[in-house]
Amino acid sequence: MEFLQQILIPFFDWELLLLVAAGTLAGIFIGAIPGLSVTMAVALLLSLTYSWDMLPALALMLGVYYGGVYGGSRAAILVNIPGSPASVATSLDGYPMSQKGEAGLALFLTTIFSFVGGLIGVIVLASAAPVVASFAVQFANRDYFLLAMLGLLLVGNLSNGTIAKGLFSAGAGIVIGLIGMDPIGGGSRFTFGSLQLMNGIDFIIALLGLFGMSEILYQMRELKRQGNPVEIKKMIIPPLRFIFKFLPLSLRVSILGVLTGALPGAGGEIAALLSYDHAKRSTKNPNRPFGEGAHAGVIAPEAGNSAAIGGAMIPMLTLGIPGDAVTAIFIGALFIHGLQPGPMLMTQSGDLFWVMVGSSILANIFLLIFGLMVVSIFIRIVTVPKQILLPIIAVITVIGSYAMNYSLTDVYWMLGFGLIGFFMKVHNFSVAPLVLGIILGPLIDTSFRRAYMSANGSMPDFLSGFITNPISLVLSIVIVFTIFSQTPIYKKLKQRIFPKKQQA
Amino acid sequence: MITLRRTLPGIVMIIVSLVILYQSLLIQGTEQLNPSGGGFLPGIIAIVLIICGIVTIINDLRKEVTTKTDEEKEKAFSNSDYLLIFSYFIFIVLYVLSLSFLPFLISTTLFLIISIYLLKGIKWYTNIIVSVATVMIIYFLFSQLFNIVFP
User: Fold this and answer.
1) What is the Cβ-side half-sphere exposure of residue B68, based on CA atoms within 13 angstroms?
2) In a domain, B72, yes or no
3) Distances in Å between the alpha carbon of A206 and those of A329, A338, B22?
4) What ipTM goes with this model?
5) Is some CB atom of chain A closer than 8 A to the CB atom of B109?
6) Do B56 and B83 belong to one domain?
7) Nearest CA of chain B to the CA of A64: how many Å?
8) What are phi and psi of A180, to 5 degrees?
9) Which helix (H) or strand (E) covers residue A337, if one does?
10) Does some domain include residue B83?
11) Beta partners for A476?
C-alpha cells in the first residue's frame, strides 16, 4: 500500500499540485495554438527547469504533455487546423461537426473522452510497468541494442516520407549522438579536431533547433493562411445516456491507443489514426457518415491519443527507450537529474514512478476541469495571427537554448539545427527519427560494443547469441520482419495472399 | 539541370555519409574491423546511409515528371517563400548577435516590434502593445519562475 501513498503525494503537495495545474492549462493552450507543438514546449521546459528539483520539473512537464495532446483537438475542431499531429484524425469529423453547429458538443465529447482515454492509459501504465520492468532486468546489452534499433526502425518506417529517408535521419541522428568523447575507448569521435565538440552536442539544443526554430521557418510562408473560425455559443452538455453509449468504443480504442503508444517509435499520431479507423469499421449506425461529423469520429481519436501517453511512458520508464519524441525528452530530463532510465529505475527510485503516475492522474483531472471551463477563450487563441506568434516563439526558443549553459554559442548551434530541420522538412525527411537517433545513439553504441566484448570478442559467439537467447531471438525476428515488410517482395506476397483486402 | 535538382537530396545524403565514413575511419587507436572499437558501428551506419542515398536518387529519378497537382503546387516552396524565410533567419541571427552587446530587454523589444512590422498585417499600436507586454511577461516569468539570468 506504500505506492498508494506515493501516488497521492502530488495531490497533497501544494507545489506539485499547482505545477501540474499550471502545466496542464499551459499545455491546453499550447496544443490549441496551431504551430506550437507539445514536443517544442516540453523541450523548452526541460531547458528552463534545468535548475529545479526533479519532481516539480517532471510534474510541470507531465501537465504540459497531457494538456498539449488534448489541446490539439481544439484547433482541429474549431478551425480545421490540427494543433498537433496527434489531432489530425480529430479534424476529419470535428470540423464538419462545427460547421453543422455542433462545435460545443464536439468540444465537450472530446474533453470527456480524452479524460477517459488518458485515465485508462495511466491505469495500464501503473499495472504494466512494474511487470515489464521485472522482466526487463533480464535484458542483456545485446537486447538493448536490438530494442533501440527496433525503435529507430519503427520511427523510420512510420514517419512520412520514404523508408530510405527515414533510415537516413535515424542513422545521421546516431552519428550526431556519438559526437564527442568515446565513453569506452576514450578517443574523440567526429569532433573535426574541435575542442568544443569533445563534450558532444547537447541534445536539448538540437531539439530546440529541430522542433522549434525549424518550425518557425517552415511556417513563415503560411502567414497569410488562417483558418476561418466557426461560431461557437457555448459548450453543449448532452444527457448522460448519450455519453455512456460511447463508453465501450472509448474503452476499445483506449486499449488500442496504449498498445500503439507502448511500441517504441509510434506515438499519439498513429494511435489516433488507428483509433479513428477502428471506430469507422466497428460503429454500425453512426449518427452521420464518417467524415461528415460522426460523433464516434471525434471520440475515438481523442481517447486513443490520450491513452497513448500512458503507453509511451511504459518503455520509457522500464527500458529507457522512448515511445515518441516527447518521452525522448523525458528520458533526457531523467538523465539531467542524475537518474538512469531503465529497468533499475523502478527498483532504485520506485517512489518517482508512483509520483509520476499520481501526477498523470492529476493532470487528467485538471484537463477535464479546464477543458470544460475555458471554452470561449479557445476561439481567440486558435486565431492568434502568425505574425505575432512566430516572433514570440523565436524569442522563447532563443532564451531556452541560452538558458541551458548561459552561452550564446549554444544559441548559434540551435539556429544551425533549425536550418537543418527546415531543409529536412522541405525535402520530406522526418525530424523525429533524427532526434530519437541523437538520444539513442550512445545507448546503441555502448550496448553493441559491450555485447561484443561480453562474447569474448569472438564473432561466431557474438552472432550466435542473437539466435540462442530467447529474448534476443524474438527481438531479432521482429527487426527482420520490420525490415522485410518494407521490401517490394513483401508487398507482392501480401497482394497475392490478401487480394481483396488490398482493393478495399 | 532538372535532373540535378531532382537528385539533389540524394546527392547531399551521399556526401554526408561519405564524410561520416571518412571520419569513422579516422577514429584513432582502434582497428577498423574490430566491432568493439569506436569506429566500427559508425562505419557500418555510414555504409547503410550511402545505400539510403543511392535508393533515394533511384526513386527520385524513377518518378515520372508529371504535371504537379494543385495540392503539390501549394506544398512546394516558391523562390519568394525562400527569400522571406532566409531573410527572417538572418534577422534572427542579428538579434542573437545583438544580445551580446545590447541589454536583453531592449534588443528583444526591438526584435519583436521590427519582426511584427516586417511580417505585415498587424496595426502599429497592436504591435507595440503586444511586443512590450510579451517582453515584460517573458522577463518576469523567466527570471522569477525559472531563475534565468538574462544576458
Assistant:
1) 7
2) no
3) 11, 20, 23
4) 0.88
5) no
6) no
7) 16
8) 120, -155
9) none
10) yes
11) none
Distance CA B145, CA B141 (A): 5
B87 plus B45 within the same structural domain = no
Asked if residues A316 and A291 have their Cβ atoms less than 8 Å apart, the reply is: no
Q: A454, A477, A493 — which closes off a domain?
A: A454
Helix (H) or strand (E) holding A188: strand A188-189
- Chain A residues closer than 8 Å to B142 by CB: 48, 399, 403
Q: Is residue B73 one of the residues assigned to a domain?
A: no
The residue of B24, B52, B57 whose CB has the most chain A CBs within 10 angstroms, and thus the best one to mutate to test that interface, is B52
The whole domain housing B38 covers 2-65
Cell of A33: 495554438
Do the domain assignments include residue B74? no
Question: What are the 10-residue block averages of pLDDT along chain A, 504 residues in total?
Answer: 82 91 91 80 84 88 92 83 79 86 86 93 92 83 85 70 82 90 79 78 84 85 60 67 86 92 78 89 84 89 93 87 81 82 79 91 93 73 78 87 83 93 86 82 86 82 84 86 74 68 40
List Cα–Cα distances, A250 to A119, A497, B45, in angstroms: 11, 32, 42
The answer to whether residues A417 and A469 belong to one domain is no
Chain B nearest-CA distance from A403, in A, is: 6
Domain ranges, residue A501: 463-504
